[in-house]
């Protein structure tokens, strides 16, 4: 009889995902240095473009910020003060029954400039405290080494990942944290949404793009350095932490053709290839051949050092993780209305609803994505970001009835269950923003994802008090029943 997995595996990892720069705060406490995220100012909604490209920054603007000439709010510097409230927040995650909590280590908290010879002990101790608190509740940490947190010192000295020397500094950082936390962390990720480097170079790699003559060349050279660094980190992780698992992370948005016109179909195929290129290198250990034409047509020549290809091939990832919020629909014609996206565009899909921010809501697309990933790589998968950013209303009695969030998550989890029945090997699911935090793309607080409400507005006002939304109890029951009750 054919064996079909019914429901979620017994050891399925349920939890939530965050990033240091969006929740920790304490940007200048205990020896921490500045990072790329600390330079991103809040941009009011009316001043943003449709794709929210608020994260690029010029050399002039950096100089103005550092000199104090440019005055603005920098919400990621303050986050939601997890740095001082982590025990309270982890207790709430434990109350929901989390099996895993995804967080990132802020590189500039460990090496303030990025290129320092010795690590900052106060920074190391902070994460020791966080991991100890998680262990108290039997919650596994899932740790991202680099989540849009390139130390500003590396930008100033090398223009970020464009310079090969940054690979060595990252290797020192990775070795430091693997050695320090080898008995506390077994699940790791290298670079968050690594493909974002080719969309927002400063966000993904601390690269100030106006310093580069050939912008595409600089982006893909920086990306190559991250690929090599990721493979080196994979090697180090396996050597230092026996039994550890380390993965890559992609911002994945399944791309559909707008019509059955072969030109639309080819455009969608091309866009999917360009997205999956990143996981091809991580999982297969080599650049796919279709990139040769793209590089040739765009005057891109990747500078490799001797041994790079061998490193990429030998040290591939153990699993593939990704974010999934929406799908994209593309066309080569002028038909279709533009659709919003977190960093991606496309046209509106007439069969889908959209979020408050215009993102196309497509639960079935998650099943499609899972099947396509597994067909392509046959490696374990981990959904490490998925959620609904929405406006939440606090009632007079303090309650928050976020039925829209529950509905969004329910439909996506249903499709995860279907994908598992399809034969997909899925390790776990960490919903994005289990607690409200500062938005990556817009630096807002009003764009809320959490099961836990944080009393802070877009201007930074509020008590920072935490309170439970209706989705808190719902997700608690999902975990308790291992996804049987949605």
From TrEMBL:
Gene Ontology cellular-component terms listed: cytosol
Organism domain of life: Bacteria
Record's protein name: Amygdalase
Any single Pfam family the record assigns to this protein: Glyco_hydro_1
Coiled coil: none
GO terms for biological process, alphabetical: carbohydrate catabolic process
Active-site residue numbers: 385
Family named by the database record: Belongs to the glycosyl hydrolase 1 family.
An example Gene Ontology molecular-function term: beta-glucosidase activity
InterPro entries assigned to the protein according to its UniProt record, in alphabetical order: GH, GH_1_N_CS, Glyco_hydro_1, Glyco_hydro_1_AS
This protein's UniProt keywords: Glycosidase, Hydrolase
């Amino acid at each position: 009889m054919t064996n079909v997995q019914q429901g979620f595996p017994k050891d399925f990892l349920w939890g939530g995902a965050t990033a240091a720069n969006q929740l920790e705060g304490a940007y200048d406490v205990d020896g921490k240095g500045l990072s790329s995220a600390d330079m991103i100012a809040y941009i009011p909604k009316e001043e943003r473009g449709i794709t929210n490209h608020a994260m690029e920054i010029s050399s002039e603007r950096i100089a103005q910020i550092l000199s104090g000439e440019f005055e603005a709010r920098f919400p990621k510097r303050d986050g939601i003060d997890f740095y001082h409230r982590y025990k309270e927040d982890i207790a709430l995650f434990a109350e929901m029954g989390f099996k895993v909590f995804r967080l990132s280590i802020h590189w500039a908290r460990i090496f303030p400039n990025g290129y320092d010879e010795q690590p900052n002990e106060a920074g190391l101790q902070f994460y020791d405290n966080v991991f100890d608190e998680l262990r108290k509740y039997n919650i596994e940490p899932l740790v991202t080494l680099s989540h849009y947190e390139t130390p500003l010192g590396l930008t100033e000295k090398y223009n970020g990942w464009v310079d090969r020397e940054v690979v060595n500094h990252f290797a020192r950082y990775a070795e430091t944290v693997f050695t320090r936390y080898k008995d506390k962390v077994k699940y790791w990720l290298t670079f968050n949404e690594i493909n974002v480097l080719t969309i927002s170079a400063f966000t993904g790699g601390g690269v100030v793009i106006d310093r580069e003559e050939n912008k595409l060349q600089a982006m893909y050279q920086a990306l190559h350095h991250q690929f090599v660094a990721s493979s080196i980190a994979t090697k180090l992780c396996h050597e230092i932490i026996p039994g550890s698992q380390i993965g890559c992370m992609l911002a994945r948005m399944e791309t559909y053709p707008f019509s059955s016109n072969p030109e639309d179909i080819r455009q969608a195929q091309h866009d999917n290839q360009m997205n999956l290129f990143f996981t091809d290198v991580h999982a297969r250990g080599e650049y796919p051949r279709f990139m040769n034409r793209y590089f040739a047509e765009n005057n891109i020549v990747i500078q490799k050092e001797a041994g790079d290809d061998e490193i990429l091939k030998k040290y591939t990832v153990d699993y593939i993780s990704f974010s999934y919020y929406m799908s994209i629909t593309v066309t080569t014609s002028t038909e279709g209305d533009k659709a919003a996206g977190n960093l991606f565009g496309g046209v509106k899909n007439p069969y889908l609803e959209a979020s408050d921010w215009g993102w196309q809501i497509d639960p079935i697309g998650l099943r499609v994505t899972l099947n396509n990933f597994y067909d392509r790589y046959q490696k374990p998968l981990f959904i490490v970001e998925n959620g609904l950013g929405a406006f939440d209303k606090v009632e007079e009695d303090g309650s928050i009835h976020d039925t829209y969030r529950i509905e969004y998550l329910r439909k996506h989890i249903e499709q995860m269950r279907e994908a598992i029945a399809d034969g997909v090997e899925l390790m776990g699911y960490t919903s994005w923003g289990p607690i409200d935090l500062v938005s990556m793309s817009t630096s807002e607080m009003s764009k809320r994802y959490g099961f836990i409400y944080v009393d802070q507005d877009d201007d930074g006002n509020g008590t920072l008090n935490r309170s439970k939304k209706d989705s808190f109890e719902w997700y608690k029951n999902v975990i308790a029943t291992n996804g049987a009750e949605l």
